[in-house]
Design goal:
The complex is a heterodimer. Chain A is mainly α. Chain A contains four helices and no strands. Chain A has one domain. The relative contact order of chain A is 0.20. In chain B, helix 8 crosses helix 25 and helix 13 packs across helix 17. The chains are: A mainly alpha, B alpha/beta.
């Protein structure tokens, strides 16, 4: 999928949770939203983009949430 | 005229809570105090003659046919206007009463055509019946005196005839227009003998303010107002109770039949939620079901460039299954999916999502609710614990303050609007928040206390500001919050909402609404008594649609306006089964009952019932499907009853996605824009041709009953079963009731639902289970479904769609009363006489700046595309805002809408598009005509 569009969508989600006073809670909320509503191929593609150093305007909160999700996925698939 | 099977009790029921026992013709009867003698008699099995009385209208006492004798009282009072009293003894028959009634009938008949045998009402005429009942044998006055027999007919309305020569001036039509519909389009003009029923100022019906709801036709006791279909075909011989297939009100109707042909649709006066009322669509615009454009043979083709080939059902189903299997094998299990339709039944949508999850092996199923009310599902579930409106429709009759935001009920949900207008006429206060002056702002006997004419896209700022006023002026209901809500979340929210940037003064510039108006509306909402919010797509179809639903939920919780009658947060769903299609698991992340697919316990229950393993990950939503198609990972699609190429935003993007897919199966009743890109066309069945259920905006599950056999030979659920079986996932159902039984077994909120119960009770509102066996009209009584109500921080984030020098205007869209969504159905009915084309509403100031006159053809362009349509210069819209409907494909409203969408659900932002509008030059117009001619020629 077009990465720019995924970035826009992830930023919108981060925008909603940004006002939460607790940043850890905000990161978890964004990650939970991505986990609950995004098809895995969308999550994988965005995670790959972030891991490869792409920042193309992704908000820090969105980036942290994507990394959190990625770490979760890695730990689940680890032997 | 009432339905052929209706019993008329004479006057409306009363519910005083106190009872009186009286005697009528020696029969004791006990009725609520306030009941008329006429109704009490009918309940006792005594039929008093009547003409001007009917149980849908308040008594009027004009015809003097229902006279009775009351022991101990002088004279002969009209039983319709005389209330019962304890111990009263009433006689309904005597020589004197008979004489009085015959005298009345004699006068009526002296000015009435004696053409009963050729009259369309013959066999279902109250005047004819009463003449028989009172024993009228001759008319002493003769027929040659002054009369109205030569009064010309008004046949201007496409659906009914007004024949004043048959009118007895009982005023039932006038009262129905006032009391039931609330339009006040009819009046009695003149006095004495010259009194006549008149639409408006003696205008033809078509030119009057009549909205063609049919209430007058239903109320008429003679053939004065008569459906043209009955005039043409004669009286029906049986009727089938079913549910309307149009909007989310979900009216109950009697399909009156002559054999397998519908003679007319009559609103079911014993049916909820409409209690015998209707609108022009449900009442009259059903002719599309038998339109010659219907596709009634299965069609296939190898390539899109080839013509369609008619084939047998078996060949079409096998072709569809082979194509989907081929794509799946070639590109992987996640490369195929399906879209369910909110026009189809619960059972049909349930089967399609089951097909995807069980036979396709993924969760790539979504529904057209994605593009309308998906933010409602997200927002209300987050705040209250379930994805549905909080009230039944009748709750509005208890509201003291009604806030209408982002919806236009008189056009989009007309039968509910009539109920709302009745309450407003009784004195409830109205707040309208809408960029456009909808009819409710000012209509006969109704005027909004406040019209917050906000700029499109600023809903959240407005409602946050209202909540700011509530919090900072101490108008919160702290007791309610303390008892019912998560107090920690409340404290956080309260701190947020009290910040100065949420004040009315701070958002005045962004919203375009004066701070004092916001403050006044907030005070009224918080202190005016029971306050109810009703909203529609003007709330959800924004980049902040979900935020706005949450913001309204915050406001309602903070003021204690939840969990009882007359209050609540109520989505008005666009299509007949938006609620139901979502309820039964059409979203890619949820199984039926709004339960997430990742829940292993839940999945295990479905896996056991369905005999397959289920994918725990959410699938693609509709916009994601398009994106995935363009990147090559999504290649096959089964679409039931949905025209995504016309109804979804940014048509160019959608069409590119459809072209990128290798195999598309369409199931629909007509060819549509999307079918141009399909390989298999499976003919669908209209709501008249199948069994099932619809669930309306108030969670009411109602039966859809087959009135005629499916034109193509199969009901839609049978087609999905056949496709599944061809894909080697066996489905065995012999009737949709078995599908509902399966839904009930697997869904806690539906465990008490069955066809047997629906047939017995008429309808039920979910949750319907062991705790609420007869359903739940009002939700969250005593406790929220999620336990404690959840306050959420709802920061206003302006949409990315901004005006610029190139695109200086904001386009917003809506619907009109006589048309329905993309017009597939209503454009194939006589409703087109009211709306032959979509027009672009533009403010006189903007029009003048551009040299646009009313009726001029204009080009509207956005960052996504351009289209042309004719301008309607009007002050309904504010400067800087233009508005159009999207009922005709030619206007191409979605050519200009963008891919911006709600942050939570991807619901498209139809309501905010930056555009420029300019007059179409003659050269451009010539080019347009040339292209149109070329397209038409190619289509031939």
């Amino acid at each position: 999928m077009e990465i720019a569009h995924l970035v826009v969508m992830a930023n919108q989600i981060a925008g909603f949770f940004e006002p939460l006073p607790d940043r850890d809670e905000a990161i978890k909320s964004v990650a939970r939203h991505l986990r609950n509503f995004w098809d895995p191929r969308m999550r994988k593609q965005l995670a790959a983009y972030v891991i490869q150093g792409g920042d193309g305007g992704l908000k820090p909160l969105a980036r942290d949430a994507v990394l959190m999700l990625h770490a979760e996925t890695q730990s689940r698939s680890a032997p | 005229m009432l339905s052929i099977t209706d019993k008329d009790w004479g006057t409306p029921a009363r519910n005083s809570g106190q009872f009186a026992t009286l005697e009528i013709d020696g029969k004791p009867v006990t009725v609520p105090v306030g009941t008329s003698i006429l109704r009490a008699a009918a309940l006792a099995g005594v039929n008093i003659p009547k003409l001007c009385a009917t149980d849908s209208l308040e008594p009027f006492g004009s015809c003097r046919l229902c006279l009775v004798k009351i022991a101990g009282r002088g004279g002969y009072p009209a039983s319709c206007t005389t209330p019962v009293a304890a111990g009263m003894k009433v006689r309904t028959q005597s020589d004197k009463l008979g004489e009085l009634r015959r005298n009345v009938m004699e006068l009526y008949i002296s000015d009435h055509p004696l053409d009963c045998l050729t009259c369309p009402a013959n066999g279902n005429c109250e005047l004819q019946d009463m003449a028989g009942v009172v024993g009228l044998r001759h008319v002493r006055y003769g027929y040659s005196g002054r009369n109205h027999l030569d009064s010309p007919k008004d046949e201007s309305n496409p659906y009914f005839v007004f024949d004043p020569s048959k009118c007895i001036v009982c005023s039932r039509c006038v009262r129905a227009c006032e009391e039931v519909q609330g339009t006040f389009a009819l009046t009695i003009q003149g006095r004495g003998f010259a009194s006549v029923v008149s639409p408006g100022q003696h205008e033809p019906f078509i030119d009057s303010e009549c909205v063609s709801c049919g209430a007058c036709v239903q109320a008429c006791p003679t053939a004065t107002l008569m459906e043209k279909s009955i005039v043409e075909k004669g009286q029906a011989e049986h009727s089938v109770i079913t549910t309307c297939g149009y909007c989310g009100v979900g009216c109950s109707f009697k399909a009156e039949m002559k054999g397998n042909e519908v003679a007319r649709m009559v609103p079911n006066k014993d049916g909820q939620p409409n209690y015998g009322h209707s609108c022009v669509k449900g009442r009259f615009a059903w002719g599309y079901a038998a339109h010659p454009d219907r596709v009634v043979k299965p069609l296939i083709r190898e390539r899109r460039s080839e013509p369609w080939r008619k084939v047998s059902w078996e060949e079409a189903i096998n072709c569809a299954a082979a194509g989907l299997r081929r794509v799946r094998e070639k590109y992987g299990k996640d490369s195929v999916g399906a879209i369910t339709s909110s026009r189809c039944t619960n059972e049909e949508t349930y089967l399609v999502q089951k097909l995807v999850r069980a036979a396709f092996g993924n969760n790539n199923v979504d529904t057209c609710a994605r593009v309308c009310h998906s933010p409602t599902g997200y927002g209300l579930k987050t705040a209250f614990g379930t994805s549905a409106g909080t009230q039944d429709f009748a709750s509005v009759l208890k509201a003291d303050v009604i806030m209408v935001i982002g919806c236009n009920p008189t056009d989009g949900h007309p039968v509910f609007a009539s109920m709302m207008k009745r309450r407003l006429r009784e004195g409830a206060k109205l707040i309208v928040a809408d960029p456009r002056a909808i009819d409710l702002v000012k209509s006969p006997h109704i005027e909004a206390a406040s019209h917050l004419q906000l700029r499109p896209g600023t809903n959240v700022a407005l409602v946050n500001a209202m909540a700011h006023v509530v919090v900072t002026e101490g108008l919160t209901d702290e007791t309610f919050v303390a008892e019912r809500c998560d107090t920690s979340a409340y404290r956080t929210w309260k701190e947020f909402i009290a910040k100065p940037h949420n004040s009315p003064e701070a958002v005045e510039e962004a919203t375009g609404v004066a701070a004092r108006a916001i403050r006044a509306a907030a005070r009224l909402y918080a202190t005016g008594g029971r306050a109810a919010i009703y909203y529609g797509l003007g709330v959800t179809e924004h980049s902040q649609g979900s935020t706005m639903v949450l913001a309204m939920a915050n406001l309602a919780m903070a003021t204690g306006n939840l969990g009882r009658e007359g209050v609540g947060v109520n989505p008005l769903r666009g299509q007949n089964n938006v609620q139901g299609s979502c309820d039964v698991g059409s979203f890619p992340h949820e199984l039926s009952g709004y339960r997430h697919i990742s829940d292993p316990v839940l999945r295990a229950a479905f896996e056991q019932a369905w005999g397959v393993s289920l994918d725990p990950e959410p699938g693609l939503r509709i916009p994601n499907m398009f994106d995935a198609a363009l990147d090559g990972s999504f290649k096959g699609l089964y679409i039931q009853g949905e025209d995504i190429a016309q109804s979804d935003p940014n048509t160019r993007h959608v069409v590119a996605a459809l072209k990128a897919m290798e195999f598309i199966v369409i199931q629909d009743i007509f060819f549509n824009e999307t079918s141009k890109y399909a390989h298999v066309f499976l003919p669908g069945s209209s709501f008249l041709e199948k069994n099932g259920t619809f669930t309306n905006s108030e969670r009411r599950i109602s039966r859809v009953r087959k009135a005629i056999p499916p034109l193509a030979g199969k009901e839609d659920w049978e087609v999905t079963v056949a496709l599944s079986n061809a894909l080697d996932y066996t489905m065995k159902y012999s009737h949709p009731s078995e599908i509902m039984d399966e839904i009930a077994r697997l869904t806690p909120t539906f465990t008490g639902v069955s066809y047997e119960k629906l047939d017995r009770l008429g309808s039920v509102q979910w949750p319907c289970n062991e705790k609420a066996p007869r359903g739940t009209p009002v939700m969250h009584v005593g406790q929220f479904v999620r336990g404690k109500g959840n306050f959420t921080i709802t920061e206003y984030i302006p949409t990315e769609e901004r005006t610029s020098r190139r695109y200086p205007l904001i386009l917003t869209t809506g619907r009109i009363l006589t048309q329905y969504n993309v017009g597939t159905q209503t454009r194939r009915t006589s409703n087109v006489v009211w709306h032959r084309e979509d027009r672009l509403e533009i403010h006189p100031h903007d029009a003048e700046q551009r040299g646009i006159r009313d009726g001029d053809r204009v080009e509207m362009s956005s960052r996504a595309g351009a289209t042309t349509l004719r301008a309607l210069v009007t002050e309904r819209v504010q400067p800087g805002v233009v508005y159009t409907t999207f009922h005709h494909p030619e206007s191409g409203a979605n050519v200009v809408t963008t891919e911006n969408s709600d942050w939570a659900t991807n619901c498209p932002e139809y309501k905010v598009t930056a555009v420029q509008v300019m007059p179409v030059t003659r050269a451009a117009r010539r080019e347009e005509v040339r292209l149109y001619a070329a397209e038409a020629s190619a289509a031939k």
